[in-house]
Amino acid sequence: MPNEKLNDIPQWTGRFYNDGVQHEDMFDKLKEECGVFGVYGHDEAASLSYYGLHALQHRGQESAGICVSDGSEFHYHRGMGLVKEVFTNDIMQNLTGPVAIAHVRYSTAGESRVANAQPLVFKYREGDLAIATNGNILNAPEIRKELEREGSIFQTTSDTEVLAHLIARSRHEDMLQALKEGLKQLVGGFAFLILTKERIIAALDPHGLRPLVMGKLGDAVLFASETCAFDMIGAEYVRDVQPGELIIVDKNGIREERFAQQQRKALCAMEYIYFARPDSDIDQINIHLARKRMGRQLAIEGFVDADVVTGVPDSSISAAIGYAEQTGIPYELGLVKNRYVGRTFIQPSQALREQGVKMKLSAVRKVVEGKRVVMIDDSIVRGTTSLRIVNMLREAGAKEVHVRISSPPFSNPCFYGIDTPSREELIASAKTVEEIRKAINADSLHFLSKEGLQEAIGRMDEGINGGHCMACFDNDYPTKTGDFSKQMISRV
Ligand code: SF4
After folding, report:
1. Structural domains of the chain, with CATH
2. What distance in angstroms lies between residue 427's CA and the mean position of ligand 1's atoms?
3. Which member of 6, 30, 34, 269 is catalytic?
4. How would you write 228-249 as a 3-class SS string?
């Protein structure tokens, strides 16, 4: 991510949208972490994984991989790019076997290169092992240093490899005992899928920070980061994997064990606000409906009279519909996203930028011209995107632009697998709401309260924050962070 300081944010640029900020990504958004998918007991495990990864593509676009076991050996392929770019028909034909794990990656720790693409595949004394993970291991650098001192040689810069080394070096002969011992040493938010030649194992961190669900398709057992992957292949949701739980699936059936007691439940609230797909359910709560409730609650807390409500596509559309329903102000498509801007898009020159070439988002002039517009967005990170969108709406003729954010101010970095800028770069860490309003050039600004967010998600019965991590809003991290967090900040 570019290193843009708050002071560099222009106040009012004249040419509004493209001026002033050199930013490689027009959307100053948080980056999703990763997505995992697993199949046990289906002849077309690789094809199911391929479709499952398609449904999870929003969680990571840097690399994709599938590893299949035919019972005697692994067949795998990993590559940089989107799922459809990494896997061809020829490649898929070689991925034979009834058990598979698969992964899409956005790198939060470790470099972006194919050696770090997952599933990572290892050989150790008990056989072959493949690992796919979503999340972040806070103490991985510490453990890695220790292991290297003792002679381990790492093949990748990925955090995930630490678990493989812990298993390989364990005194336990039994792989499951070695795995449990390894998992116990990890601090952070993680959802693992582990493949051996004859079984698949799912494990979730003791706080349940990252989502992981189990499903079934006929007799086959499935795992995925989100339920939308099950819908894609006509599979049924069975249940969410629980914090500290280990689920083992092999020829003896399904075994549910623990590697740690559940600690304070702290499922990432940003999954509901922004990361997950609207058609997914997490803990049986539908994401679209939760976002709509956030919009309704936002209207109750921060009503402003206006002519139209619009949402920043795609993640804020549901909240905008909720805001419109609650207030009676019509919802309109005031902003349109250009869906076909890919990584190979030729960036416009500065001269074209100055002529107003907009790559990713456009305002619908006929909708906003002369209107008082309520613009709903899910979060403000550095503030640069919000400023651009507000200015774009003004350039398209909006008379007033009122910004409503369907989450509390994002003022602390995440250490659990979400790529966030350092605290200093988060606009809400240093500025008041009024100062942010000025910086983004809005007529008014309101953030959803933490209590309102909790109520909108609708799971109130599990302790602190209703069982959610909200550390990026309230600085109350569910795990110890200590020195780990300093390492993370320097790596972002
Ligand atoms: S700090 Fe924020 S983004 Fe990170 S896990 Fe917690 S709620 Fe999610």
Report:
1. 6-27+287-337+346-483 (3.40.50.2020), 34-263 (3.60.20.10)
2. 17
3. 34
4. HHHHHCCCEEEEECCCCEEEEE
